[in-house]
Every structure is written in C-alpha cells, then in structure tokens.
Amino acid sequence: MTTNAILTAESLELMPVRQPSSSTRTPEAAQRRSDASRDHSNDDPRWKAVMARDVARDGEFVFAVSSTGVYCRPSCAARRPRRENVQFFLHPEQAERAGYRACLRCRPKSISGNSRSDSVKAICRFIEQHLDEPLTLGRLGKEFHQSPFHLQRRFKQVLGITPRAYADSCRLRLLKRNLQAGDSVTRAMYDAGYGSSSRLYEKTASQLGMTPDKYRRGAIAATIRYTCADSPLGRMLIAATDRGICSIQFARTDGELLEGLKHEFPFASRKLDDGGLQSWVSALLRHMRGKDLDASSSLSLPLDIRATAFQRRVWTYLQSIPFGATRSYSEVARAIGRPRAVRAVARACATNPVAVAIPCHRVVRQDGSMSGYRWGVERKQALLAMEKES
Ligand SMILES: [Zn+2]
Fold first, then answer.
1. Which of 132, 167, 371, 387 has the fewest CB atoms within 10 Å, i.e. the most exposed one?
2. Using an 8 Å Cβ cutoff, are 74 and 50 in contact?
3. Could you tell me the distance, in angstroms and rounded to a whole number, from the CA of residue 97 to the centre of ligand 1?
4. Confidence category of residue 219, pLDDT binned at 50, 70, 90
C-alpha cells in the first residue's frame, strides 16, 4: 500500500488487474509497468487504434514510445513505433510522470479527458486565437491531426455549427464589442480579425443588419414598425422604417420572427403596427398567389435595405426575373457581368433581407433543382410551385 498511496485515483484506474503489485517497486516503475501490458499484444485495441491513427480515440489514451521518450495521441501522423517500445497511458500527465515528453507534432495535451467536447473546445480556443488568419478546414485538420472531414463533423456534432461559422461569430462578437467601445471602424475591423475592409463590409453589413459605421454611431434609434400575419409559407413578418420595408421573414412562430428582428436590428425600437402595414401585407400575399400581376409581373414595394454594391447588383437583377421564371446562379452571375462570381451570387441570395420582395427563390441550381433558401428549401419549393400554378 505504500506504493499505491501516492498514486492518484486516475492512475489507479489504468492498473491492469493482472498486474501483481509489489511493494518493492518504485512508484515510477509501477507506472511504467501499469499501462503496459507486458505481453505487448498486437491485439490490444489501443494498439490497433494507434496503427489506424484513429482520430476517434484521441483523448481516450496516449501512447508512449520508449525509444524516443515521446508520447503521442493515437492519431499522431508520426511514423509508427515498434510494438515492443510502446506503452499506453490514460492521461498525458501519467505519461509525463513516467518521464515521457509530449510530442510536438500531435500535441497530445491539447486534448485532455476523453470527451469529444474537450477536443472541440481546444479547436474553439485555437480559432479564437487565430481569427486574423485564414482558417481553412485543412489548416485546422493539420493542427489537430484529424481529417478535415472528421474535424468538421465532430465540431458540428458538439456545437451544431461549422468551424467557419464559429470563427465568423467570434469575429462578429469582437467587432460589435469594439464598435460599441467607440473604436474607429477600421480599427475595430482590423482588431476583430477581418481582412480587407471590402470583404468586411460585404460580410458584416448583412450580419449586423447595417453597415459597421451605422452600427458604431448607435444610430439605430430608428423606429421599426412590424406586423406578423398568416401566409401560405407559415407566419410572415414585415418590418419597415419610415423609408420602406427593411425586413420580410418567414418562420413557424411569431416568437421566432421577433427574435430574428431583434437580432437584426439590435438598437432599434420595435413597434407593433398591424394597421399601418396591412396594405403591404396584402400586396405581398396577392403577389405570392400570382394575383394582380402588372405588366412586368414584378412586385414594387418601397424597400429600405442596406446592401453592398455587389449585393445591390444581384438583388436588382433578381427583381427583374419574371414571376414564374427561374435562373441558375451562373446565369445571374453572367447577367450582372461577373460570370465567375457564382458563389458570391449564392451568398447574396442567402443574405437577402426581404423574402419574395427580392425573389431570391427564383434562383435555382443549373440542373433546375432547388438548393438552399434562407427560409428553408420547403418554402422555396412551395413558392415556386405556387408561381407555376398561377
Ligand atoms: Zn505525436
């Protein structure tokens, strides 16, 4: 018992049952042996995991290599050691107490414990510390020794969003804080890890619901009036400033709609105004059903939306697509004179703040199939079906 007295509960749990405990052994020797199935079985599942560089076992144990004095996580990309030189430990600390150093390549300590969420936490911390660098999945994969595919999948399983979306949200949070603190826009952008300012404007204007400058001025004492109504696509919200409609959204419940509005216009004061917005609601519903289409079959409601130059070009073009017709993303890109900007077109569609009024639902894949819609593919399908029928 004198030997075991200084072993922690953690290290005890990895003592193989068959290990005879001898009071003559030093604690260190006990630990070196503890992991270590003496027979160095090739059938040990841990060894199989090491041979397979199994990312899924990362965090569950580490393996130490006596010939190099280094310990690694199972997925380490380094050359596989000989079986007889390998010992297993449950925790990095135990390997270190036994005299091993952490591998610099796979950094086995950055995953501790054995839960997935720990590894995801480590990735989060890494992202937070590298917001000012382009963080591709490939780069993260290298850093954490996981295939980009697996890394993304596990990350999404734990957090529900992709690493890229996580990075975006970190930048945005930081930017908001910097702007609220009164930093200049350039400074705030730079410090939040946004690259060139044009890219920032593209992104943040849509994410903030306004330009960063406007956000900074807190300008947003503006009053936004809104109303919710039934529509063929579920509950619909129309919100407007004094100058025109600033938001048209669909959701299942009014609660969701209001939450979204709050998120998009955090500083605005929001006022319910069913009566004042009724005529726009009716116009929109009639249009969705294909009623009273004018010669150009387009819907002309006054809009008050912020857009980058590129977004404005895309959105203006979308408004020229006739009721019932569709275009592919690349057709839109060609039509606005930016044939290679297909993905940017898709992004502009995805950030459309006013459903139906800017008919981004009329943009479909090349082969005519649906593709994404900010308010759900089912709604896009339903809208297009309604347009076909009328
Ligand atoms: Zn390693």
1. 132
2. yes
3. 18
4. very low
Residues 6+ apart with CB under 8 A from 1: 23
Of 285, 276, 283, the closest CA to residue 300 belongs to 283
Residue 64 and residue 95 in contact, taking contact as beta carbons nearer than 8 Å = yes
Average pLDDT over residues 285-309: 76
Length of the chain equals 390
86 CA distance to ligand 1 middle (Å): 13
Answer yes or no: are the C-beta atoms of 316 and 279 closer than 8 Å.
no
Residue range 131-189, pLDDT digits in tens: 877 789 999 998 888 889 989 988 887 777 889 888 888 888 788 777 766 666 777 77
Q: Whole-model pTM?
A: 0.47
Ligand 1 centroid–CA 138 distance in Å is 18
- Region 257-263: what's the mean pLDDT? 88
Rounded to the nearest whole angstrom, what is the distance from the C-alpha of residue 107 to the centroid of ligand 1?
Answer: 6
- Share of the chain residues as helix, strand and coil, in percent rounded to the nearest 5: 45, 15, 40
Give 60-114 pLDDT, tens digit per residue.
Answer: 889 999 999 999 998 888 889 999 999 999 888 899 999 999 988 888 887 544 4
Which residues are known to be catalytic?
72, 360
